[in-house]
Design a protein that fits this description.
By secondary structure, the chain is α+β, with helices and mostly antiparallel strands. Strands 4-3-6-5 form a four-stranded mixed beta sheet, with no helix packed on it. A four-stranded antiparallel beta sheet has the order 7-8-9-10. Strands 17-16-20-21 form a four-stranded antiparallel beta sheet. Strand 11 and strand 12 form a beta hairpin. The chain starts with 10 loop residues before the first strand and ends in a 16-residue tail after the last helix.
Length: 1289
Amino acid sequence: LHTGSKLAIRIQLIEPIMPTVSEPNVIPTNDGENAGALADASFVASKGANGDSDALEQDGNMEVREVKLQLSLPGIPEPLKLSVSTYERLMELRDYISDRPETCDRTCYSLQSVDGVRLDELVLIGKLQDVDDGAIIRLVDEEYNLRDVKIHLRRLRDLLTNFSRANAYTAHDNMSLTFLNGVTEVDIEEEALKKGSTKESQLDCMPPNYLIPDNSSSSGVPLNSLYLDDSYRDPLQCLKELSTSGWNPPPPNRRLQGDLMYINVETLEGDIYNITASISGFFVNRTKDVTFDPTPQSEFSLNHTLAGLLSKISPAFKKNFLLLQKPQVEPSRTCPYALSGYNMIVICLYFNILNKLVPAIVVFPWIVPRLDHGYDKQRAEDYSFSRVGYEEHLGGQLRDWNDDFQSAKEMPAETVQEKIERDRTIFRVNTDFVAVATKGAMAIVDGNVVAMNPTEPESFAVDCRDQYKHLGGDIAAYRAAGQDVRAIDFFQKLDADGLCTLETAVIDYCGRRIIAQSLIPGILNRSQENSVIYGSIDSGLTVAADEAFVEQLKKYSQLFRVRPIKVVDKSDQNVEIWSSIELKGILGYDRRRYIVDLIKTLPVDVNFIERDENGQDDKTQRFFPLNHGHFLSRLRRELVEAFFTGRYMLYWRLVAIYSYADQKQSQDKKELDQAESEPLPEMPVQSQEIDQSGKNDSIDNNGSKDDQNQSENAVQIEAKKRAAAAVGSYSSTELDIRFNPDLFTPNVKFSESEKDTLEKDKVMVNDAAKFLVESVIPRTVEELKNVTSPIDSNSFTDVLHQRGINIRYTGYIASLVADKPELSYVYKLCLTEMIARTAKRVFKELIRHSGFRFLSSAISHFLNCFLGSVSNPSANIPNDLRTSKKKKNKKKHAKSHNLAQDKSELARWVSLSPEELWKQLSSEITAYFGYAIPRVQSDNVPGEYLAKLQRISVLRTFCMQTGVQIVLREYAFDNKKVLTFKDEDIVNIVPRVKHLNPKALNYSETVFEIAQQRLQVGQMQEALDVLLEALAIFQQVYGPLHPDVFACFRSIARIHYSCDDPVQAVCFQKKATILSERLFGIDSQDTIIAYVRMTSVHLALYCHAAGQKRVALRLMYRARYLTCLIFGEDHPDMATIDSNIGLILFATENGQNAIKFLVNALEIQQRYYGGDSINAAISHHLLAIVKSTACDFRSAMQHEKQVFNIYNLKFGEKDDRTKESSEFLNRLTGQAVVMQKKINELTAGMNHNQMGNLPTGIGHDNRQIAQFINMINGLQNLSPVAPSVPENK
């Protein structure tokens, strides 16, 4: 075991891990002994999540074992030794070859045995006859074709430019940002592994002026500090130009000689070459300027790769290209565990690769610096010849997304490895679909894709065919798209057999919503009426109920909590279906059964529809019902499950009560009957008679026991029936909570036999809505006070959704917390959420009718009216559309044939004013959320509504919800003369995507709960085993960059920290931090929760424990900066951050600044938790320690008196905490007395040479500071430790 870790980890080789596309699946070693990586073989816990000793099953047809291979690569004299699993495919070695610096540019080759036999790369290694331990596999260059040349050119271009700063800012090729290295300025892992603590000066640990509580300005922290310029340097330039030549395509005579393409290259030395890509490789031809001469030059020989040829003709290219591809971290130094030669890290051992890997889902930043647009011919060619919907690896063919998706779901899943293969394939198909669907949706909105049915009106999630007319029209169609995605995602996680769903994504772009779905085979070759064999396409006039669909839906109806309903069609026929009538069943040409339009799988929310019944009491009647203009307001699934859990507990409680009552009543009645029929006493009988009598008594007793058991069973059955009726169960004999999906839906006619059941349905949905309003929301508000504290709009949305609360209840929550000072931050979040969401709806309607010519002007004008302080901002109108008093030239006017259309588009947003906009926003907020935004007196209209909010926070929320990207600069929101936003500040509009989220083995939902259970009982080893197993599975399915992988790393780091191993905690937490930035954005929802409050804080704590105080402070400063930027200083979490900063500054002997941060933490604790809270007591105690160290004993005594009073009030005099506080207070009193005496002596004429006799402050050590840090952050349940007081001499 690794000697540096204090936590012994027992692991076992169970199953192989399949590598991901983006990472090398094998790690080379120098000696070849016991070489391998967890990316090659899965090291999982000897006890898995299910508690079995064998967590994973073996494939019965093939032995899963390690195979040592030798890979012979061109240009490398000695074969590379590596270890792989027999369960891997040979083609996965290509990932490793692509990551080797010597072979990263090779794309056209095959893998062959020593005998020259080409190996089948799709077959598992264990099934290859010529591949066994010690086998040599040769990489053999193959001939090119035109497609191979294009792929090769693309690969080289990616190697040269893929990791540039511009790509990360613009999310090109899914690249994303990370600033961890820029924040820390050192490799924190390398420093932690040194296991040494260096002396750091106060100057090194000083906070920036804008982060010190006393120095913070009213306008907040500067925006420019969000991005660190030194964190993203453009890669080394290797060439001035690389593009295809104007001499393409090769003439026929040259094609017959093997020429495929001509390429222009300009080197850093200034030389220009024309290169021929031929079947055999690349060579320099004799073409010069306008003279075409394709014959090869004799100076440079043929090379199979373009990079190899460029290295010969340009020394600068050779040098920079090698530096660009050189790994910067050695595997042996970064491996936290070394187990018999196997590297324990699942993801890439080169940590810099985490900065370069491409995540599956693109992350767009909401604000970006101004970037220069460079000249690039190759980029221009890619833009000019891009083909939307075509896959490069399919040679220009259209990809059948539905067949790929359904085939992946039908893959075998008998063993764990087969399940992993299946889940990984599903995940990759879904990822590819979302990427292509996003590009396609943008092309559609931009007008670059011609519709298959151009004669029909455009359909951007609107009711163009009156399909949703009875449900609310366009508003209902818009809502239905999002509900459909969530329902399909839920159904897919059920892993249902017999029914198929479609790949689905919803893209919001430029004010339009586009629904992307895979095609059902044959759906375009027949009419909709002939396609649907289940459900209704005409709002219930005709209802089909295919028996096969009915049987399949019946199996899953209980999981959906949907009961069967009987409806009447237009021919007065009763039809029974097991879903909403909106759900449609279609039989495809591939004989698969598909279900679509799962928009009403959840019960209706009666609080937001117009109805005759009123199930609310006086408390909530003033809020509900609210009319949203549609009938698709549905409760969330989390709420339905919580409601079911409540009914489940109530059901069994009632069963127990009814059973007890019935049994007691039956027993009393039986005793009474027995007393009435008891005979008179008789004389004794003979022994034989006695024996016979005893026998008869025994028989009678047995008979009475059987009767008693039958009676008890009957009582139990009767109690269950009564309990089922009381809780509204669909079944009359057991608990079965279900809802009517079409309740309160217009145009749905139910059968007469449903009359009584419909009344029960109404009671059930009213109870669910009442449960949400009267139980879930008040409990959530209480949790927001003491348990969780979201920091921005997105995290606030997450908190509500996790508890089953829809965002439309934000107004009701605001009304509950408006008058509670301890929840003022929640009130601000509610206001921000309501304002931003309403502004988004108005904004989308505005830009939907604005031409692309005016988008920048329209967006900047909207933002000026929304957040600026200029009373009457003027819009930037093009000169040719400005109204002029001069007589217009008729001929010039005639040329502008689109002038009328342009003016019509201008009229929608040019006339917008701040007063008009905020009047509309206020009205819609009141109508939609049921809450009136309070107004205050201000000299500008936005200030009347935003007085309690930080405008930069509102701007960030608005941009993240609409996809608007703005330039990174300081915005003057309070300037009444200059416009806040200009046209140049609008960088882009990026798409916002809702898509399916496939999970691995249904494992990610339970693994953290299992680990938490192990931790609660102190089973650290078992918890770590579970997390390591989960990490191995997640790596195989998702790849290195995924939220579940991030969560595993964070949890593993916390276990190491709890086991007093801060070095390993830093190693794992560093990876978690990089993943959080790259996956969620540097300030997005999960990064605010995990990176700022968890990862960054915890990483800082781990660094402090590892002796890196300066790094810990820099991370804390970053956490404080982001919190101030996103919300402001007045947030409960700021108390935790400031307490940590104060303690670490105190450890660096910077007491003056430490006191400022601790005082601010105390004020926040008192504001949100009360002056007599435990949190306030801890802050008082910390201030007492710091001030006593500075010999300010009088002030320290005042703080410690507060601590003593709080502990005495809450715990009593005999509690240990009260005693410790009293003892510390006595010590402070003694030191204060001594100090006063010395001061009196000094004032009385004591010699200056005697100044050393003055008492020093109370000392401290790193152990005590670490204990306080743990206590503040909830990492250990520790009570305050009173520092030792040195004896005054």
